[in-house]
Amino acid sequence: MQIQIPALVDAIETRSSTNFFQPDSALEDAAILRLVELATRAPTAFNLQNWRFLAVRSPQEKARLQALAAGQAKVSEAAVTFILCGLHPRQGSLPPLLAPSVEAGYMPAALAADLASAADAFYGDNLRLSRDEAIRSASLAGAFLMIAAQAHGLGACPMVGFDADAVAQAFGLAQDEVPVMLVAVGRTAAGNWPQKPRLAPASVATLL
Ligand SMILES: Cc1cc2nc3c(=O)[nH]c(=O)nc-3n(C[C@H](O)[C@H](O)[C@H](O)COP(=O)(O)O)c2cc1C
């Protein structure tokens, strides 16, 4: 994936949802993992990193997913379509996730222990809060993933047009894994629209 990387603001301003991909234009596994790596630079509450990226890239698996995504052709035509899952925060999951920050020397061990307890107490058995967190984390990762794709000269399209229950079952998701969105990524073909106009900032912002 040797392509020129435009500035981040350019990537944000030029990104649009890709409808047409070059079929049969595969991405190397290393490129797919690099995109995932960049997506995981998104923040999560407590640094929970409560996500999983199912990179659906083989023709057979893409066909299976396309059938559960209202037949949307881009699911198969893209080089890879991610099933972006957010996880309900799991009790006791934080200590190993915070350990690298402690080992790096900037997070005191006692603070890491306090944060781990606080997270467990915060989510507890609150299903709504846990699901909200799953959706927040996966959504942030999705945004980072799409911008990373754009910055690497690739196109991407987020999709909610899929049967979440059927996808969870067909791809063996655990009970606490929410398939938040699909994100198709690949080389763009002709015929895609530019980014659609947005509402004026002043009409959506409230300056207090
Ligand atoms: C959560 C979400 C779900 C979407 N689902 C679909 C979808 O299932 N199929 C599709 O073609 N586009 C889908 N889109 C793309 C939107 O239609 C698109 O982002 C919007 O029209 C703005 O266009 P732009 O991103 O090109 O500026 C989705 C976008 C988001 C953020």
UniProtKB/TrEMBL annotation:
Source domain of life: Bacteria
InterPro entries: Nitroreductase, Nitroreductase-like
Record keywords, A-Z: Oxidoreductase
Keyword Oxidoreductase (UniProt): yes
One Pfam family per UniProt: Nitroreductase
Gene Ontology molecular functions: oxidoreductase activity
Protein family according to the UniProt entry: Belongs to the nitroreductase family.
Name of the protein in question: Nitroreductase family protein
Organism listed in the record: Pannonibacter tanglangensis
